[in-house]
Inverse folding.
């Protein structure tokens, strides 16, 4: 089992972690002269076969398949520009955003308007990080009547918890509806959102 | 540099502020002082105080500056008008442009900017109190602010100044020593790999003196690096 021998501590950039050996290196590490070093300040996870560093502070970089929450920033000829809380902008083409056929005389703002919050999936990322989003996903939807808060993207797994335990607890106890995006945006809907925000900010600390 | 002082800068192996030749001034590092920034730091070397804040990686405007294969680093060094005895005329001048440029050169090789195409990392260094060695204080502050912002980097850059006053080699020059000494050398390096990313010298020294200056600089950088590490580790300790 991977869990048996796992080393966890805070590392800083350039800190020597381990000899490379047969280990696989993940996020937050780099290899130089067959040695593994950390490239960010974060929590080291040094297992038997895998090494990674979970950054304590980072920016979201779009990755294929990520489920994210974004805000419609502008409406273009053939789709929407979406602010995805990242150095890069997501583009949602009409064909990926709407299921029905839309001819070019239709005003596409009737589907998503400026400022709308949407939950979508990253369907394509090119080498220079041009990002395409898609609503063709079973969870993808427009999120209405809620608030969004920003957290560190690497803390999202902690907010969700093991198979959703943490987030379900917060949902249950506060009676709110919560969606998390892997880009570090959490959407909270429902009456009791203040308590839920407090809970999430506590986890994010 | 090169002026004549009426006081003795070194007396009996002691410098004007009572330090010995190999002593640095008091180094103090505070982290996370600017809330809106992604990472920030305040570094004090005696009376020299530098604030640094880092934003990014973020979208780069104007768009023509974007590079399709790599991100870029922009640095801005600025001295506050009240940071020196005579009021400094605010704004960009030749000196601050030069220091901004050498700061980029000192830090850029340590960053994995190729992972962030089309984006920019903005570094702002503000000197609010100047008493010699401001560029090295600025680089020290910028380097840990970048690390705190979570931007991937190979190593943390540490920087210090060494110099020559009245035939003796000293480390960490303050304002007076800088003005009246005979040589001033600023160095920035990744202490763990011994890579030097900045080497600027003003004045004249012999080859042997330069060699021992570099040695002194490395030892000083190691000391400062320990402080930087400690500050970064304490950042997330509650």
């Amino acid at each position: 089992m991977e869990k048996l021998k796992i080393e966890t501590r805070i590392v800083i950039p350039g800190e020597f972690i381990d000899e490379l050996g047969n280990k696989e290196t993940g996020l937050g590490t780099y290899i130089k002269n067959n040695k593994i070093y950390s490239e960010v300040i974060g929590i080291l996870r040094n297992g038997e076969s895998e090494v990674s560093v979970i950054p304590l502070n980072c920016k979201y970089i779009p990755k294929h398949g990520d489920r994210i929450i974004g805000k419609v920033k502008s409406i273009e000829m053939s789709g929407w520009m979406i602010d995805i809380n990242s150095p890069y902008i997501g583009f949602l083409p009409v064909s990926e955003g709407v299921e029905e056929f839309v001819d070019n005389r239709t005003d596409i703002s009737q589907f998503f308007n400026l400022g709308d919050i949407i939950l979508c999936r990253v369907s394509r990322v090119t080498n220079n990080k041009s990002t395409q989003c898609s609503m063709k996903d079973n969870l993808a939807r427009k999120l209405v009547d809620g608030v969004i808060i920003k957290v560190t993207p690497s803390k999202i797994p902690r907010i969700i918890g093991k198979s959703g335990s943490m987030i379900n607890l917060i949902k249950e106890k506060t009676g709110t509806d919560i969606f998390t995006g892997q880009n570090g945006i959490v959407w909270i809907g429902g009456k009791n959102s203040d308590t839920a925000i407090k809970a999430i900010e506590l986890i994010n600390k | 540099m090169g002026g004549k002082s009426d006081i003795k800068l070194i007396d009996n192996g002691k410098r004007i502020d009572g330090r010995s030749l190999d002593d640095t001034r008091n180094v103090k590092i505070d982290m996370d002082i600017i809330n809106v920034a992604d990472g920030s730091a305040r570094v004090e070397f005696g009376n020299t105080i530098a604030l640094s804040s880092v934003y990014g990686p973020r979208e780069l405007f104007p768009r023509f500056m974007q590079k399709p294969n790599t991100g870029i680093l922009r640095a801005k060094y600025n001295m506050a008008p009240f940071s020196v005895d005579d009021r400094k005329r605010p704004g960009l001048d030749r000196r601050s442009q030069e220091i901004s440029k050498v700061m980029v050169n000192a830090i850029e090789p340590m960053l994995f900017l190729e992972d962030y195409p089309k984006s920019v990392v903005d570094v702002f260094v503000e000197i609010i109190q100047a008493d010699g060695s401001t560029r090295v204080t600025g680089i020290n502050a910028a380097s840990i602010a970048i690390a705190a912002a979570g931007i991937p980097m190979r190593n943390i850059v540490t920087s210090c100044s060494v110099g020559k006053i009245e035939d003796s080699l000293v480390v960490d020059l303050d304002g007076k020593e800088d003005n009246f000494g005979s040589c001033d050398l600023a160095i920035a390096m990744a202490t763990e790999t011994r890579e030097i990313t900045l080497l600027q010298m003003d004045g004249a020294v012999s080859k042997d003196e330069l060699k021992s200056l570099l040695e002194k600089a490395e030892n000083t950088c190691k000391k400062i690096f320990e402080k930087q590490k400690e500050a970064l580790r304490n950042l997330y300790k509650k």
